[in-house]
Amino acid sequence: MIQAIISGLLMGFVYALIAAGLSLIFGLMEIVNFAHGEFLMLSMFSAFWFWALFGVDPLYSLPVTAALLALLGLVVHYGIIRHILRAPMLAQICATFGLAVFLRALAQFLWTPDFRTVIHPLVEGRVEVLGIFLGLPQIVASVGCLMGFTLLYVFITRTETGLALQATAQDRQAASLMGIPTDRMYALGWAIGAACVGVAGGLLSTFYFVFPEVGFQFALIAYVAVALGGFGSILGCLLAGVLIGLVEALGGLLIDPSFKYLIVFGLYLAVVFFRPQGLFGRF
Amino acid sequence: MAMLEVKGLTKKFGGLVANDDIAFAVKEGEILGLIGPNGAGKSTLFDLLTGFQRPDAGYVSFLGRSLLGSRPDQISRLGVGRTFQKLRPFDHMTVEENVMVGVLQHTANLRVAREQALGALFFVGLLEKRGAHGHMLSTGQRKRLELARAMATRPRLLLMDEVSGGVDQRSLPGLIDLVNRLKQQGMTMIIIEHNMQVLMSLADRVLALHLGRKIAEGTPEEIQNDRKVIESYLGLAYA
Amino acid sequence: MRSRTPAPMIAALGAAEREPALQDALNEPARTPWRLRTRLLGLAGLVALLAYPFVLDAPFPQHVMIMIFLYALMAQSWNILAGYCGQISLGHAVFFGIGAYSSGFLFATFRVSPWLGMMVGIAIAMAAAVAIGLPTLRLRGHYFAIATLVIAESVQIVFQRWEFVGAASGIWLPIVRENPLLNFQFNESKIPYYFIALGFLSLVCLAVWYLERSKAGYYFRAIREDPEAASSLGVDVSRYKVLAFMISAGFMSIAGTFYAQYVLVVDPETVFPLTLSILVLLIAVMGGVGTLWGPIIGAAVLVPLSEFTRIYLGGTGGSVDLIIYGALIVLICVFRPVGLLGIWKDWRLGTAVGGAKNRGNA
């Protein structure tokens, strides 16, 4: 039982970071990145290939993975998002959705649907803490994500650029009147949001299977987390991510492992009906 | 009996009081002007009257029937029409189709509906543009479309949010004339307006709001010379 | 009913006799009639469609066309909700599955005629649409889209565990040789399937055609454009959204029943997957969302593409079609959200959007 709680908690931090990226983008420009799961998948593959081809452990290649994803975020923003900011919602949803389909199919084509794993990563094995067995990679990943999250939070709330981002998110016109280059803020938002996912993915690859479809399940959880925490609230993501991790783990334990997703989804639906703005959200 | 009666209408957004204990009445066939500087609560008042916001306190009755708690579409069907300050034509539908949506409230027969829609467009002077899509219109044309659309629902009371806002000097007389013609047809209206000139020529009575409260009520001449009103717009120095 | 003073426009209509401009406008037909050339082309197309399965009397070409009809049917259903009413559902496969399972289960277990089973499926799908729609349709666009995604996934998970309907292995429909029409099963040839599919497609297109000319259709589009403005005009937004959802779900479930009778196997993996919801969306958007012909064009382009890439590239090449679709969708959404149909229309009229803007001048 305690085991479930702890491992749920650990996973929760990973979810939180993934959700944070999504929330950042939405808070800035009210666009849901339906390709978020595919971003994660790409970052996991990036970490995997660095290991498979060059023997670099995912932990070492983490900065590279994050940078690559940030680059992807920028490309997506300048190539796609910028053109659909004022488009009808259908176009916005379909654009990122289409991107998701494209990326997933591309991954399937290039790398086959086979499952891959990083074998013998730098950090592996299990450790026993007070009678509970925890996988070391999970702990490292979790801590890493928590650190990434904290970094993000500090950046958003304490640095000048971060505050500029917040200003842009709250009121674009006012921000631009104050001299903030809002277009670059949007691009920055995408870069950081993608980088968050990059970090999470790189860390995930140390213990999770890597395959083209992997993004979707994490994406769903991210949507639920963002809705639960409140679209646009970074802190909400942390709480929501942890909550979901716990619910998932406990649900799997107490009810039926195969139904754990149902419980998470039920949570989404409950939140969205009873408190549409989530715990801390702006809407 | 008054067509519209409002008593003690209050709406707060957090700490901001948008409408504070507003009370007034509108008789059938008259045009009531609503003025006040930005932020005085005029549009909020319209929102409260048409069901887009719920008041925190107060009472609204239209033709003897309470409007509180009703949805905007219910209120529209009761006979209260409205245009919006931020013009919102249906962009991807033609002008004719836009007005049809209003007409269809009363008839499901498309042929009949179309006749009425064209009639409405003719009245507002947009007949030639009936095939154009919503997003292709100029501001003046959009205002006319909003009006035609609202008219098409055959309201007993029409709430117009801004006649002159954003309209260039050339088109303004045409718009004023249009509202006048509407008045001659017997339409009861409440008009939010900033332009004193327009107000003078259209309104029978005027209500002045400032920071959510009613500060004056009277004929356009009375209001124009009212100290409190001048103060609210221009500050103490000019009162 | 309330009494009304004559509305200004009715008074204006009284003036119509004196106003030539209004008279002219009133006399114009509501829609421009088709030119002779278009009518002849249409007739030729219809003949070709009817003759096709006899001229190309081989399973594969017939199968491709059947798939085109099926996907066009599904895309058109989605189009009703998303294209005309503006509610983007990302989990529409749910209704497909309901249709497939309803008729499939009833046939396999009780030998109930699939036609009856189809009616049951439609009823269940519509009920599901109401149950799902009432709470979710008041959500904003993204939230609704995600909700549909989440619900579809949940339903798939439930069916994968539900022993009553065969859990993960699903339902295998028995092969019956007698009464092919009653039992909706044609073992000798695909030709009856061809015409039934064509029939269903015609049905949904007829429904859309009718919607475009009905009060509900106008209301749907008003809701799509601006729900609040629509509300101020007397449109009961919630009610019409649910109506659109119901109609869309009903047709989707018809497609599900057809599919069940065509492949004779119904399992969660095939009838509920995200890929199906995605495909339906892609086809509609690519062809031109919000139009009658859009989904048909989309299916006519994408399905053959899909089939051929699967044959010639095989294995992992099976996803090449998705690569192309995904890229196309992104490009379309970025540059021309009107889809292929819109692009074709623009090209034919010889005007770009800019040209049209010039026409509608102040």
- Kindly provide the radius of gyration of chain C, computed on alpha-carbon positions and rounded to a whole number of angstroms: 23 Å
Largest sheet descriptor of chain A: 2 strands, antiparallel
* Amount of beta strand of chain C: under 5%
Count the beta strands of chain C. Answer: 2
Query: Which strand order spans the largest sheet of chain C, edge to edge or round the barrel?
Result: 1-2
CATH architecture of chain A: Orthogonal Bundle
Count of individual domains of chain A: 1
- Number of DSSP helices of chain A? 11
Keywords, separated by commas or semicolons:
heterotrimer; B: 239 residues; alpha/beta; Rossmann fold; 6-stranded mixed β-sheet; 4-stranded antiparallel β-sheet; 9 helices; 10 strands; globular; C: 362 residues; mainly alpha; two-stranded antiparallel sheet; 17 helices; 2 strands; 72% helix; disordered N terminus; disordered C terminus
Helix-strand layout with pairing:
The complex is a heterotrimer of chains A (283), B (239) and C (362).
Chain A: H1 2-29, H2 36-54, H3 58-84, H4 89-111, E1 126-129, E2 132-135, H5 136-158, H6 160-170, H7 172-177, H8 182-204, H9 214-229, H10 234-254, H11 260-274
Antiparallel strand pairs in A: 1-2
Chain B: E1 4-13, E2 16-26, E3 31-35, H1 42-50, E4 57-62, E5 65-66, H2 72-78, E6 80-82, H3 95-103, H4 110-124, H5 139-152, E7 157-161, H6 172-184, E8 188-192, H7 196-202, E9 205-210, E10 213-218, H8 220-225, H9 227-234
Parallel strand pairs in B: 3-8, 3-9, 6-7, 7-8
Antiparallel strand pairs in B: 1-2, 1-4, 4-5, 9-10
Helix pairs in contact in B: 3-4, 3-5, 4-5
Chain C: H1 8-14, H2 20-27, H3 36-55, H4 59-84, H5 93-110, H6 114-136, H7 141-161, E1 171-172, H8 191-212, H9 215-225, H10 227-232, H11 237-263, E2 265-266, H12 268-271, H13 274-288, H14 294-313, H15 320-335, H16 339-349, H17 353-359
Antiparallel strand pairs in C: 1-2
Helix pairs in contact in C: 4-8, 4-9, 4-11, 4-13, 4-14, 5-6, 5-11, 6-11, 8-9, 8-11, 9-11, 13-14, 13-16, 14-15
